[in-house]
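quick one: fe (ii) ion bound model?
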Amino acid sequence: MYQKKELSYSLDALEPWISKPTLYYQNKFYREAIRKLNQLLQVDRPLEQIVQNIDSYPIKIRGELLFYSGRILNHELYFDSMSPNKKNRPVGMLAKAIQKQYGSYSQFLEEFKKVAHTLVGSGYTFVTVDNNHHLNIVNMPNEETPYLYGFVPIMAFDLWEHSYFLTYQDRINEYIDAFFEVIDYEKINQRYEKIIL
Ligand SMILES: [Fe+2]
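yep, here:
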Protein backbone atom coordinates (compact mmCIF):
# COMPACT_ATOMS: atom_id res chain seq x y z
CA MET A 1 0.00 0.00 0.00
CA TYR A 2 1.39 3.38 -1.00
CA GLN A 3 1.45 5.84 1.91
CA LYS A 4 0.89 9.55 1.60
CA LYS A 5 3.87 11.80 2.36
CA GLU A 6 2.99 14.72 4.59
CA LEU A 7 3.66 18.27 3.39
CA SER A 8 6.67 19.73 5.20
CA TYR A 9 4.83 23.08 5.57
CA SER A 10 1.27 24.19 6.27
CA LEU A 11 -1.24 24.89 3.49
CA ASP A 12 -0.96 28.65 4.05
CA ALA A 13 2.85 28.71 4.39
CA LEU A 14 3.47 29.83 0.79
CA GLU A 15 0.99 32.73 0.84
CA PRO A 16 0.63 35.04 -0.97
CA TRP A 17 2.61 33.38 -3.78
CA ILE A 18 0.88 30.02 -3.73
CA SER A 19 -2.47 30.39 -2.01
CA LYS A 20 -3.95 28.15 0.67
CA PRO A 21 -6.97 27.15 -1.46
CA THR A 22 -4.63 26.22 -4.32
CA LEU A 23 -2.49 24.01 -2.08
CA TYR A 24 -5.62 22.53 -0.54
CA TYR A 25 -6.80 21.34 -3.97
CA GLN A 26 -3.31 20.24 -4.99
CA ASN A 27 -3.14 18.10 -1.88
CA LYS A 28 -6.62 16.74 -2.54
CA PHE A 29 -5.69 15.64 -6.08
CA TYR A 30 -2.50 14.09 -4.69
CA ARG A 31 -4.40 12.10 -2.04
CA GLU A 32 -7.00 11.00 -4.57
CA ALA A 33 -4.25 9.72 -6.88
CA ILE A 34 -2.89 7.61 -4.00
CA ARG A 35 -6.34 6.17 -3.32
CA LYS A 36 -6.76 5.27 -7.01
CA LEU A 37 -3.29 3.75 -7.28
CA ASN A 38 -3.85 1.59 -4.20
CA GLN A 39 -7.13 0.39 -5.70
CA LEU A 40 -5.41 -0.50 -8.94
CA LEU A 41 -2.38 -2.32 -7.61
CA GLN A 42 -0.67 -3.81 -4.57
CA VAL A 43 2.23 -1.33 -4.57
CA ASP A 44 5.36 -3.15 -3.43
CA ARG A 45 8.15 -1.12 -5.02
CA PRO A 46 9.09 2.55 -5.46
CA LEU A 47 6.87 4.33 -7.99
CA GLU A 48 9.92 5.28 -10.07
CA GLN A 49 10.49 1.56 -10.63
CA ILE A 50 6.87 0.99 -11.60
CA VAL A 51 7.20 3.71 -14.24
CA GLN A 52 10.56 2.40 -15.48
CA ASN A 53 9.14 -1.14 -15.78
CA ILE A 54 5.70 -0.27 -17.07
CA ASP A 55 5.98 -3.03 -19.73
CA SER A 56 5.84 -5.68 -17.02
CA TYR A 57 2.28 -4.72 -16.00
CA PRO A 58 -0.92 -5.88 -17.73
CA ILE A 59 -1.71 -3.73 -20.75
CA LYS A 60 -5.20 -3.07 -19.40
CA ILE A 61 -3.94 -1.06 -16.43
CA ARG A 62 -0.84 0.61 -17.89
CA GLY A 63 -2.52 3.90 -18.79
CA GLU A 64 -4.03 4.42 -15.34
CA LEU A 65 -0.93 3.09 -13.62
CA LEU A 66 1.30 5.59 -15.42
CA PHE A 67 -1.12 8.41 -14.77
CA TYR A 68 -1.53 7.86 -11.03
CA SER A 69 2.12 6.95 -10.37
CA GLY A 70 3.14 10.05 -12.30
CA ARG A 71 0.60 12.23 -10.56
CA ILE A 72 1.92 11.13 -7.16
CA LEU A 73 5.61 11.46 -8.07
CA ASN A 74 5.11 14.81 -9.78
CA HIS A 75 3.11 16.33 -6.94
CA GLU A 76 5.55 15.09 -4.30
CA LEU A 77 8.41 16.66 -6.25
CA TYR A 78 6.46 19.88 -6.85
CA PHE A 79 5.63 20.19 -3.13
CA ASP A 80 9.23 19.42 -2.31
CA SER A 81 10.56 22.03 -4.75
CA MET A 82 9.01 24.79 -2.62
CA SER A 83 9.12 25.94 0.99
CA PRO A 84 8.65 29.09 3.07
CA ASN A 85 12.38 28.98 3.98
CA LYS A 86 13.52 31.69 1.55
CA LYS A 87 16.12 29.52 -0.15
CA ASN A 88 15.38 30.96 -3.55
CA ARG A 89 18.95 31.39 -4.82
CA PRO A 90 20.84 28.39 -6.23
CA VAL A 91 23.42 26.83 -3.90
CA GLY A 92 26.16 24.19 -3.96
CA MET A 93 26.99 22.09 -7.01
CA LEU A 94 23.67 23.04 -8.58
CA ALA A 95 24.64 26.71 -8.54
CA LYS A 96 27.92 25.79 -10.25
CA ALA A 97 26.13 23.67 -12.89
CA ILE A 98 23.66 26.47 -13.63
CA GLN A 99 26.50 28.94 -14.00
CA LYS A 100 28.43 26.61 -16.27
CA GLN A 101 25.53 25.58 -18.51
CA TYR A 102 23.50 28.76 -18.69
CA GLY A 103 26.07 31.49 -17.98
CA SER A 104 24.11 33.04 -15.13
CA TYR A 105 21.09 32.43 -12.94
CA SER A 106 19.02 35.01 -14.82
CA GLN A 107 19.73 33.25 -18.11
CA PHE A 108 18.65 29.97 -16.54
CA LEU A 109 15.41 31.63 -15.42
CA GLU A 110 14.86 33.07 -18.86
CA GLU A 111 15.31 29.64 -20.43
CA PHE A 112 12.98 28.05 -17.87
CA LYS A 113 10.25 30.59 -18.62
CA LYS A 114 10.69 30.12 -22.35
CA VAL A 115 10.29 26.35 -22.06
CA ALA A 116 7.34 26.61 -19.63
CA HIS A 117 5.50 28.83 -22.12
CA THR A 118 5.81 26.24 -24.88
CA LEU A 119 3.89 23.58 -22.94
CA VAL A 120 0.62 22.83 -24.69
CA GLY A 121 -2.27 21.56 -22.57
CA SER A 122 -1.75 20.36 -19.01
CA GLY A 123 1.59 19.17 -17.73
CA TYR A 124 4.81 20.14 -16.02
CA THR A 125 8.12 21.81 -16.62
CA PHE A 126 10.92 19.83 -14.98
CA VAL A 127 14.59 20.34 -14.34
CA THR A 128 16.11 16.93 -14.95
CA VAL A 129 19.55 15.37 -14.77
CA ASP A 130 20.78 13.00 -17.48
CA ASN A 131 23.46 10.28 -17.46
CA ASN A 132 26.17 12.87 -18.10
CA HIS A 133 24.99 14.88 -15.08
CA HIS A 134 23.72 17.57 -17.43
CA LEU A 135 20.77 19.71 -16.44
CA ASN A 136 17.83 19.84 -18.83
CA ILE A 137 14.67 21.92 -18.71
CA VAL A 138 11.89 19.83 -20.24
CA ASN A 139 8.12 19.82 -20.53
CA MET A 140 6.07 16.66 -20.08
CA PRO A 141 2.37 16.42 -20.90
CA ASN A 142 -0.32 15.42 -18.41
CA GLU A 143 1.21 13.33 -15.62
CA GLU A 144 4.15 11.92 -17.53
CA THR A 145 7.33 11.78 -15.53
CA PRO A 146 10.94 12.07 -16.75
CA TYR A 147 11.62 8.61 -15.23
CA LEU A 148 9.74 7.21 -18.21
CA TYR A 149 12.56 8.47 -20.46
CA GLY A 150 15.57 7.72 -18.28
CA PHE A 151 15.96 11.18 -16.75
CA VAL A 152 15.86 11.97 -13.05
CA PRO A 153 13.81 15.06 -12.20
CA ILE A 154 15.16 17.27 -9.41
CA MET A 155 12.52 19.98 -9.64
CA ALA A 156 8.90 19.97 -10.83
CA PHE A 157 6.75 22.93 -11.77
CA ASP A 158 3.04 22.13 -12.00
CA LEU A 159 1.38 23.79 -15.01
CA TRP A 160 -2.04 22.21 -14.74
CA GLU A 161 -4.68 24.92 -14.60
CA HIS A 162 -5.54 23.99 -11.00
CA SER A 163 -2.04 25.12 -9.97
CA TYR A 164 -2.59 28.78 -10.84
CA PHE A 165 -6.14 29.54 -11.92
CA LEU A 166 -7.61 30.40 -8.49
CA THR A 167 -4.99 33.12 -7.89
CA TYR A 168 -3.63 34.11 -11.27
CA GLN A 169 -6.36 33.12 -13.76
CA ASP A 170 -4.52 33.21 -17.11
CA ARG A 171 -1.51 35.25 -15.91
CA ILE A 172 1.00 32.43 -16.15
CA ASN A 173 3.97 34.82 -16.02
CA GLU A 174 2.92 35.92 -12.54
CA TYR A 175 2.55 32.32 -11.44
CA ILE A 176 6.04 31.48 -12.71
CA ASP A 177 7.51 34.48 -10.85
CA ALA A 178 5.62 33.45 -7.69
CA PHE A 179 7.00 29.92 -7.89
CA PHE A 180 10.55 31.27 -8.06
CA GLU A 181 9.88 33.28 -4.87
CA VAL A 182 9.07 30.14 -2.88
CA ILE A 183 11.38 27.72 -4.68
CA ASP A 184 13.74 25.90 -2.27
CA TYR A 185 17.13 25.46 -3.94
CA GLU A 186 18.59 23.77 -0.88
CA LYS A 187 16.29 20.82 -1.34
CA ILE A 188 16.76 20.81 -5.13
CA ASN A 189 20.53 20.96 -4.73
CA GLN A 190 20.44 18.05 -2.25
CA ARG A 191 18.74 15.94 -4.92
CA TYR A 192 21.27 17.09 -7.53
CA GLU A 193 24.30 16.34 -5.35
CA LYS A 194 22.91 12.92 -4.42
CA ILE A 195 22.88 12.06 -8.13
CA ILE A 196 26.24 13.45 -9.16
CA LEU A 197 28.49 12.85 -6.11
FE1 LIG B 1 -1.29 19.60 -9.57
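The helical segments are 20-40, 47-52, 59-79, 92-102, 105-117, 165-168, 172-182, 185-196.
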